[in-house]
Structure formats: structure tokens, C-alpha cells
Amino acid sequence: MIVKNGTTMDGFLLIGFSDNPELQFLFTLLFSVMHLLALTSNFTITTITTLDQHLQSPMYYFLKHLSLLDVSFLSVTVPQSIDNSLMDNAYISYGQCILQVFFFTSLAWAEVAIHTVMSYDCYVAICLPLHYELIMDPRNCKLAVIAVWLSGGFSGILFTTATFSITFCKAKIIHQFFCDVPQLVKLSCSSDYLGVIGVDAFMSVAAFACFISIALSYIHVFSTVLRIPSAEGRSKVFSTCLPHLAVVSFFLSTGMDTYLKPTSYSPTALDLILSIFYTVIPPTLNPIIYSLRNESLKGALRKLLLGQEFIFKRTFLSSC
Question: How far from 80 is each of 83, 90, 91, 173, 217, CA to CA, in Å?
Fold first, then answer.
């Protein structure tokens, strides 16, 4: 029940982008279109990489899990925001907020981890082709994906435990379109938020280490590709790797900036816009980046659209 200043309210109020009904409708429409686009593209990639016998290599195996992560990551925040806007109700229950924090932080870290694995796969494929099948064998690929999902769960437990050990003594108003940890931290009136700061610092160091690993992998890939005599081959690699590196950079930089900087008690429009760069943009763009210049994926998609049957066959990663 909402009482004076909202401190005894059971849940929280999500104050999103605007109180203006027209702007609110515009953001809802934009979120709906992006969510539908991301769901369609990621489910399509998941389907064709599962069914097509020619798309059973480690690269497509990891891409399939990235698509599953993208769908899950986007679905944690966007549907709730759309529902709140359509129902003209900013309320989110305490339990829903806990689940949102857990799944958001779990999947956010899993996204970082799968991108790191995929960059390493790219490095081995281009720089160590003679050792590729030995290094990226089915068992190692399966263990890598298990590690991605488990590390995500570990991150979610750390953030959720630290965040909801806080005593929320201020009005439970979150200036964001979802239950974001930095906005929850500012509702504390004591030093019990220091646990969240510690988790932020630990996960940021880990994320920065992953980014360095991704960058080094691509530096080696670029140096190897530059020696390829074919200009078309170089262009194909650069057109895939550079956008991927850009999206990962935006995802990590905006996320780390939000989670590490002192929380503002007067959030700006820029803070809300930056949050889109680590919540909505990456899962929407990833399918485009990985499929736009990939002839194998486009060929499999044509078969799917034309209703041709996929041939099931035990291949390199069928055991995964």
C-alpha cells in the first residue's frame, strides 16, 4: 500500500523515460519493434543452427547460445516496461524486482563470457587453423558453454544477495525502466550498500579482463588477416569483426560506467539513453552482425523460408 513518501510500499515504482503520454507511447512502440525484431532474428538463428547439418561447427554452436542469451536478456526488462506503459502503471512488486535483478545481472555477465569465448574461437580458427579441431573439440566447446551459463548464475547470485541485503529507507522510486542495481543502491540510507560496491568492482575487473582478451584475440586476427592476399577475404573478416568489437565495447563501457560511477540522485536523459546501450541495443544488433555477411546462414535461412527440409546428420558438434 502506498503511503506518505512511499517508504512502506511493498514494491517499487519504475519512472521510465517520460511522463508525457505521447513520448511514453513513442518509447513503448520503439521497444516493441526492437523486441519483436530481436525475438524473430534470434529465434531464426537458433532454429537454423540447430537444424542445418552445415551449421554444426563450434562457431555456430556458440552463436546459437548467444542467440538464446540475447532473447532471454532482452525479455527480462523490455516486456515489463511495455506492460507498465500500456497499463499506465509504474508499479513492480518486490519479488519481481528481485527476479529482474537476478536474471539481468546473470545474463549480462553470460553475454560478456560468450563473446569472450566466441572471440577466442575466431582467433584459433584464423591464427591456429592446424590445431583448431584439437582445441575446439566437442567436449571443450560444451565445457565452455557450461562455464558461460554457470558464471552468469554466480554473478546473478552475488548481485542479488548484495543488493537486497540493503535496507531501503527512502521512497521506493526507481528512475529507470527496470530494476537496475545502481538505482536501487541510492534508496539506501546507510553504508549497507558497500557490499554492492564490492561486487561491482569485482565483476568490473572480470569484465575488463574479458574485454582485453577479446581485443587481443581480434588484434591477432587482424594481423593475420592483413597478410591474406584476397581483398575480399580481408573485407569479409573486418566487416564482421569490427562491428562485433564495437557492440561489445559499447555494451561494456556503458554498463561499467553506469555501475561504477556515483549514482546521481537526479538522473538525466543521458543516463536513461546510455542504459539502452547495455540492455536493448546489443541483443538487437548481434543477429544482424553475425548473419549479414554470413553466406552459410543466409543460405540456411533461404531454405527455411522456402520450406525445404533440413538434413539431419551427426556432425562435429552433434554430441553438444
Answer: 5, 10, 10, 16, 37
